Amino acid sequence: MKFAIFGTGGVGGYFGGRLAQAGQDVTFIARGRHLAQITEAGLRVDSIGGDFVVKPAKATDSPQSVGEVDVVIVATKAWQLSESIGQLKHLVGKRTMVLPLLNGIEHMDLLVDAFGSRVLGGLCRISSFVAGPGHITHVGIKPSLAFGELTNEKSGRVKALFDVFSLADGITVDVPENIQVAMWEKFVFICSTSGVGAVTRQSMDVFRAVPESRALFESAAREVESVGRAKGVALPADMVEALMKRIDSLPAGTVASMQKDIMEGRPSELEAQTGAVIRMGRALKIPTPSHKFIYASLLPMELKARGK
Known about the structure:
By secondary structure, the chain is an alpha/beta fold. It has helices spanning about 10-20, 30-40, 65, 80-90, 105-115, 155-165, 180-200, 205, 210-230, 240-250, 255-265, 270-285, 290-305, and strands spanning about 1-5, 25-30, 45, 50-55, 60, 70-75, 95-100, 120-130, 135-150, 170-175.
């Protein structure tokens, strides 16, 4: 298959790198010094599952030069997506699969509006980041992908994509029975860990061990769960209990990407995560006091990072 990785950060760089390592035709869409280093020296991935280098690596800042591909993996920050739709259109043909691996949930409406049934539901789990130009570091969480048709049909194209990912090292791949449920389970997790982690400025092992911040995390998770149920998503009855067990199993030092961005003074996904919960809750008349507290606490830092 011919892949384009739109957004060669911690997520796109890792999963795209594994595909290229497995012999797939992969083009990385990148910019600036990151692009120059990938072009000149290849894409370096340091991983707790084994280091590797993709060299030579195909990379460009011009989607127009790539043309239509079989699969576009969209791995930008959520707040960058709306300005990227025009560039994405150069990569998408009638048979192209658009696989989003963004944090959040509202991006799905934007992609479906632009590309219709070409869009799959998708999510990933990994803790990784850009350590430097052309250099991705994977530091925690066993990398996994889940995707499927938004209708939950077991289609031939999903089966073909599953088979391709199954050949790549360092990735666990799954096609859930219900991709909407899987995406919302991820959304509950990422919103709550990002928000509480950023407010406390502590890794997950630290805030989970303090009764007060642990209670804030559970409250935040239950608010997102209530919003999802109000939107008609059939979330498991014990979802939050399972989430609490999961967070207790994560290794020390695990930090969500939104928290990392906020703590380092960069623009973050605050609006796509915490802000989205508040907006949806307001529309559905679901109270979200924990997320409102988190949002109000973090907004000054977010505005400063954006120069506002």
